[in-house]
Task: structure prediction
Amino acid sequence: MPTAPCFYVNDGDREGSQIDLEHFPFSIGRARECDFVIDSPDVSRLHAQFEFDHQQVYIMDLGSTNGTYLNNHPLEPNKQARLRAGDEINIGNVALLLFDDPATTAQIAEVKLPTPGLRLDEMAAQVYIKGERLDPPLSPSQFTLLGLLVHNEDAVVTREDVRDYVWGADVDVNDQTIDALVSRLRKRLTEADEEHDYIVTRRGFGLMFRNRRDN
Result:
Protein backbone atom coordinates (compact mmCIF):
# COMPACT_ATOMS: atom_id res chain seq x y z
CA MET A 1 0.00 0.00 0.00
CA PRO A 2 1.35 3.48 -0.89
CA THR A 3 1.91 5.91 1.98
CA ALA A 4 2.89 9.03 0.02
CA PRO A 5 0.69 10.90 -2.46
CA CYS A 6 0.87 9.20 -5.82
CA PHE A 7 -0.86 8.77 -9.13
CA TYR A 8 -1.67 5.77 -11.27
CA VAL A 9 -1.31 5.72 -15.05
CA ASN A 10 -4.64 4.62 -16.51
CA ASP A 11 -3.71 4.24 -20.17
CA GLY A 12 -0.81 4.00 -22.63
CA ASP A 13 2.39 1.98 -22.39
CA ARG A 14 2.67 2.53 -18.63
CA GLU A 15 -0.92 1.66 -17.78
CA GLY A 16 -1.20 0.43 -14.21
CA SER A 17 2.07 2.04 -13.07
CA GLN A 18 2.16 3.75 -9.68
CA ILE A 19 4.20 6.97 -9.56
CA ASP A 20 5.00 8.26 -6.06
CA LEU A 21 5.11 12.01 -5.49
CA GLU A 22 8.21 12.01 -3.30
CA HIS A 23 9.15 15.67 -3.87
CA PHE A 24 7.50 18.91 -4.97
CA PRO A 25 7.15 20.54 -7.37
CA PHE A 26 6.79 17.39 -9.48
CA SER A 27 6.80 18.21 -13.19
CA ILE A 28 5.07 16.50 -16.11
CA GLY A 29 5.95 17.10 -19.75
CA ARG A 30 7.81 16.10 -22.88
CA ALA A 31 11.16 17.52 -21.73
CA ARG A 32 13.66 14.94 -20.51
CA GLU A 33 14.28 16.90 -17.31
CA CYS A 34 10.64 16.46 -16.20
CA ASP A 35 9.93 14.13 -13.30
CA PHE A 36 7.34 12.27 -15.38
CA VAL A 37 8.13 12.31 -19.09
CA ILE A 38 5.38 11.79 -21.67
CA ASP A 39 6.94 11.38 -25.10
CA SER A 40 4.21 12.82 -27.33
CA PRO A 41 4.06 15.89 -29.59
CA ASP A 42 0.65 16.69 -28.06
CA VAL A 43 2.26 17.19 -24.66
CA SER A 44 4.14 20.45 -24.00
CA ARG A 45 7.77 20.40 -22.87
CA LEU A 46 6.68 21.67 -19.46
CA HIS A 47 3.02 20.73 -19.37
CA ALA A 48 1.88 20.59 -15.72
CA GLN A 49 3.17 20.08 -12.22
CA PHE A 50 2.08 18.83 -8.81
CA GLU A 51 2.61 21.20 -5.89
CA PHE A 52 2.25 20.88 -2.11
CA ASP A 53 0.99 23.55 0.26
CA HIS A 54 -0.63 23.45 3.73
CA GLN A 55 -0.80 19.62 3.73
CA GLN A 56 -2.65 19.60 0.41
CA VAL A 57 -1.56 18.49 -3.06
CA TYR A 58 -2.37 20.71 -6.05
CA ILE A 59 -2.11 20.38 -9.82
CA MET A 60 -1.23 23.34 -12.03
CA ASP A 61 -1.20 23.61 -15.82
CA LEU A 62 1.97 25.40 -16.98
CA GLY A 63 0.42 27.13 -19.99
CA SER A 64 0.41 23.95 -22.09
CA THR A 65 -0.79 23.94 -25.69
CA ASN A 66 -3.39 21.18 -25.33
CA GLY A 67 -4.39 21.77 -21.74
CA THR A 68 -4.70 19.85 -18.49
CA TYR A 69 -8.11 18.57 -17.35
CA LEU A 70 -9.22 17.75 -13.82
CA ASN A 71 -12.26 15.48 -13.76
CA ASN A 72 -13.01 16.58 -17.35
CA HIS A 73 -12.79 20.29 -16.50
CA PRO A 74 -10.01 22.33 -18.16
CA LEU A 75 -7.60 23.98 -15.74
CA GLU A 76 -6.82 27.66 -15.98
CA PRO A 77 -3.11 28.01 -16.85
CA ASN A 78 -0.74 28.82 -13.97
CA LYS A 79 -3.48 28.48 -11.36
CA GLN A 80 -3.48 25.80 -8.66
CA ALA A 81 -6.34 23.31 -8.33
CA ARG A 82 -6.60 21.23 -5.15
CA LEU A 83 -6.58 17.45 -5.56
CA ARG A 84 -8.54 14.79 -3.71
CA ALA A 85 -8.14 11.03 -3.73
CA GLY A 86 -9.84 9.62 -6.81
CA ASP A 87 -9.42 12.72 -8.97
CA GLU A 88 -8.77 12.06 -12.66
CA ILE A 89 -6.14 14.13 -14.48
CA ASN A 90 -5.98 14.28 -18.28
CA ILE A 91 -2.69 15.52 -19.73
CA GLY A 92 -3.31 16.97 -23.20
CA ASN A 93 -5.71 14.12 -24.06
CA VAL A 94 -2.65 11.85 -24.17
CA ALA A 95 -2.23 10.48 -20.64
CA LEU A 96 -4.90 9.74 -18.03
CA LEU A 97 -3.73 9.80 -14.39
CA LEU A 98 -5.62 8.86 -11.24
CA PHE A 99 -4.53 10.74 -8.11
CA ASP A 100 -4.41 9.10 -4.68
CA ASP A 101 -3.39 10.47 -1.29
CA PRO A 102 -3.46 7.62 1.27
CA ALA A 103 -2.58 9.90 4.21
CA THR A 104 -5.63 12.05 3.55
CA THR A 105 -7.90 9.15 2.75
CA ALA A 106 -6.92 7.31 5.93
CA GLN A 107 -8.17 10.23 8.01
CA ILE A 108 -11.68 9.83 6.62
CA ALA A 109 -13.53 7.02 8.33
CA GLU A 110 -15.92 4.93 6.32
CA VAL A 111 -19.41 6.33 6.72
CA LYS A 112 -21.61 3.71 8.35
CA LEU A 113 -25.22 4.21 7.32
CA PRO A 114 -28.27 2.01 7.78
CA THR A 115 -28.10 -1.02 5.47
CA PRO A 116 -31.62 -0.49 4.04
CA GLY A 117 -30.43 2.77 2.51
CA LEU A 118 -27.21 4.18 1.13
CA ARG A 119 -23.70 3.48 2.37
CA LEU A 120 -20.39 4.96 1.26
CA ASP A 121 -17.13 3.06 1.20
CA GLU A 122 -14.76 6.00 0.82
CA MET A 123 -11.59 3.93 0.85
CA ALA A 124 -12.77 2.03 -2.24
CA ALA A 125 -14.78 4.95 -3.70
CA GLN A 126 -17.87 2.74 -3.89
CA VAL A 127 -21.56 3.34 -3.15
CA TYR A 128 -23.95 0.69 -1.84
CA ILE A 129 -27.73 1.12 -2.01
CA LYS A 130 -29.93 -1.42 -0.24
CA GLY A 131 -26.85 -3.59 0.12
CA GLU A 132 -26.04 -3.60 -3.61
CA ARG A 133 -22.92 -1.95 -5.05
CA LEU A 134 -23.66 0.79 -7.55
CA ASP A 135 -22.36 -0.36 -10.93
CA PRO A 136 -20.91 1.33 -12.87
CA PRO A 137 -19.33 3.45 -10.12
CA LEU A 138 -20.07 7.15 -9.82
CA SER A 139 -17.75 9.57 -11.56
CA PRO A 140 -15.16 11.26 -9.26
CA SER A 141 -17.16 14.52 -9.18
CA GLN A 142 -20.43 12.69 -8.45
CA PHE A 143 -18.80 10.69 -5.66
CA THR A 144 -17.27 13.84 -4.16
CA LEU A 145 -20.64 15.61 -4.18
CA LEU A 146 -22.36 12.61 -2.60
CA GLY A 147 -19.68 12.47 0.10
CA LEU A 148 -20.31 16.13 0.94
CA LEU A 149 -24.06 15.54 1.22
CA VAL A 150 -23.70 12.35 3.29
CA HIS A 151 -21.32 13.99 5.76
CA ASN A 152 -23.91 16.75 6.22
CA GLU A 153 -26.93 14.45 6.43
CA ASP A 154 -30.19 16.27 7.28
CA ALA A 155 -28.42 19.65 6.97
CA VAL A 156 -28.69 22.09 4.07
CA VAL A 157 -25.70 22.26 1.72
CA THR A 158 -25.54 25.46 -0.34
CA ARG A 159 -24.37 25.96 -3.93
CA GLU A 160 -21.27 27.66 -2.56
CA ASP A 161 -20.55 24.61 -0.41
CA VAL A 162 -20.85 22.36 -3.48
CA ARG A 163 -18.68 24.61 -5.63
CA ASP A 164 -15.90 24.86 -3.03
CA TYR A 165 -15.90 21.16 -2.12
CA VAL A 166 -16.18 19.63 -5.60
CA TRP A 167 -14.16 22.07 -7.72
CA GLY A 168 -12.30 24.25 -5.22
CA ALA A 169 -12.91 27.82 -4.10
CA ASP A 170 -10.67 29.28 -6.82
CA VAL A 171 -12.46 27.61 -9.74
CA ASP A 172 -15.16 29.57 -11.56
CA VAL A 173 -18.15 27.21 -11.91
CA ASN A 174 -21.58 28.44 -13.00
CA ASP A 175 -24.96 27.35 -11.64
CA GLN A 176 -25.76 25.34 -14.76
CA THR A 177 -22.70 23.14 -14.21
CA ILE A 178 -23.66 22.56 -10.57
CA ASP A 179 -27.27 21.76 -11.54
CA ALA A 180 -26.08 19.30 -14.19
CA LEU A 181 -23.87 17.46 -11.67
CA VAL A 182 -26.69 17.28 -9.11
CA SER A 183 -29.10 16.03 -11.78
CA ARG A 184 -26.74 13.27 -12.91
CA LEU A 185 -26.12 12.14 -9.33
CA ARG A 186 -29.84 12.18 -8.49
CA LYS A 187 -30.57 10.14 -11.62
CA ARG A 188 -28.01 7.45 -10.67
CA LEU A 189 -29.45 7.14 -7.15
CA THR A 190 -33.03 7.01 -8.44
CA GLU A 191 -32.11 4.25 -10.88
CA ALA A 192 -30.88 2.19 -7.94
CA ASP A 193 -33.79 3.01 -5.60
CA GLU A 194 -36.91 4.46 -7.22
CA GLU A 195 -38.85 4.48 -3.95
CA HIS A 196 -36.76 6.99 -2.03
CA ASP A 197 -35.44 10.51 -2.72
CA TYR A 198 -31.95 10.65 -1.22
CA ILE A 199 -31.32 14.22 -2.38
CA VAL A 200 -33.96 16.78 -1.41
CA THR A 201 -33.96 20.34 -2.79
CA ARG A 202 -34.72 23.14 -0.34
CA ARG A 203 -35.65 25.92 -2.75
CA GLY A 204 -33.79 29.11 -2.04
CA PHE A 205 -31.42 27.34 0.36
CA GLY A 206 -29.72 24.31 -1.17
CA LEU A 207 -29.63 20.51 -1.03
CA MET A 208 -30.17 18.03 1.77
CA PHE A 209 -29.29 14.33 2.01
CA ARG A 210 -31.85 12.06 3.64
CA ASN A 211 -31.08 8.39 3.98
CA ARG A 212 -33.57 5.60 4.41
CA ARG A 213 -34.35 4.84 8.03
CA ASP A 214 -35.08 1.53 9.71
CA ASN A 215 -38.78 1.28 10.39
User: Anything to note?
Assistant: The chain has a mean pLDDT of 87.
